[in-house]
């Protein structure tokens, strides 16, 4: 028997009162300025920084930045996003590692648009939700209830039909089961149903546009860095059928997921498992970098 979530009444969806109680229970655990902005701002010496917004909770503390290389007419456009869920650290740091150490390899080949940390408040408190107890990665929809999602949608809107590849960098963590899924059930007044956290890296493709070869190229590259999650005894990963080694599919646009915000031909969502005894934080960041590079290389070979 599971212990009821400490906020709210089991079976009853949260009102504003419970959401406020949840917000007030959050504490700062790390610094967006020290861990993220300190790595973004120096990139202005080599790339174009675009401040595309700021979070209303503290605009001076939480500016939103995207990074562009020197765009050239006729080159394919690739979008890389990280930190949609602020607690998924390697998505943020992997995007920054790519920018610092590998982005120059694609100069004159790819126009890059990279948003390394979409949810900076959630990065600081190490949480999935934004201050209003909203999941940004179910909120990439018109009139979004998440200002983080709305800001990214506005940034991408002028180029959404030009993007050829979009890779969205995520993690699946033990805290998904210990905190975030129980909180979701409590917020929505539903019963919490435990699941198994997969041990290893996997991808979420688009069920409406699966692009099997693209997904395989990323899995093959990442498998050289870290292990790939096996299916459970039902052939699933987090409740979804494994369609090829390390890959499941979701209807990303219908679910309001970040991977569906453009009309790109090649799209995927990475999922790193940072709590594995077989992986270090450095390996998790390296897996994200390997995924970005493999995605870009496949796009260039198949544009």
From TrEMBL:
InterPro entries: Peptidase_M14. Belongs to the peptidase M14 family. It comes from the Bacteria. Gene3D superfamilies: Zn peptidases. SUPFAM superfamilies: Zn-dependent exopeptidases. This is M14 family metallocarboxypeptidase. It comes from Shewanella jiangmenensis. Residues 28-303 form the Peptidase M14 domain. Signal peptide: none annotated.
């Amino acid at each position: 028997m599971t212990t009821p979530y400490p906020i709210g009444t089991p079976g009853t969806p949260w009102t504003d009162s419970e959401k406020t109680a949840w917000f007030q229970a959050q504490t700062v655990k790390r610094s967006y300025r020290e861990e993220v902005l300190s790595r973004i701002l120096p990139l202005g010496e080599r790339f174009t920084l675009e401040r595309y917004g700021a979070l209303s909770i503290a605009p001076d503390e939480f500016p939103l930045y995207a990074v562009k290389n020197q765009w050239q007419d006729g080159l394919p456009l690739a979008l890389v996003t990280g930190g949609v869920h602020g607690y998924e650290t390697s998505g943020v740091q992997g995007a920054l590692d790519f920018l610092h150490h590998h982005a120059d390899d694609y100069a004159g080949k790819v126009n890059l648009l990279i948003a390394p940390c979409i949810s900076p408040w959630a990065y600081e408190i190490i949480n999935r939700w934004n201050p209003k107890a909203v999941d940004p990665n179910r909120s990439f929809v018109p009139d979004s209830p998440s200002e983080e999602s709305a800001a990214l949608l506005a940034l991408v809107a002028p180029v959404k039909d030009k993007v050829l590849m979009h890779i969205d960098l995520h993690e699946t963590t033990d805290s998904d089961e210990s905190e975030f899924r129980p909180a979701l059930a409590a917020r929505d007044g539903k019963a919490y149903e435990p699941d198994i956290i997969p041990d290893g890296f996997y991808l979420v493709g688009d069920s409406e546009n699966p692009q099997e070869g693209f997904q395989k190229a990323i899995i093959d590259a990442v498998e050289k860095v870290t292990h790939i999650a096996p299916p459970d005894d039902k052939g699933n990963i987090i409740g979804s059928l494994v369609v090829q080694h390390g890959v499941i599919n979701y209807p990303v646009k219908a679910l309001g997921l970040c991977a569906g915000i453009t009309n790109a031909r090649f799209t995927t969502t990475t999922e790193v498992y940072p709590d594995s005894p077989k992986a270090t934080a450095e390996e998790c960041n390296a897996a994200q970098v390997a995924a970005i590079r493999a995605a870009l290389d496949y796009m260039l070979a198949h544009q």
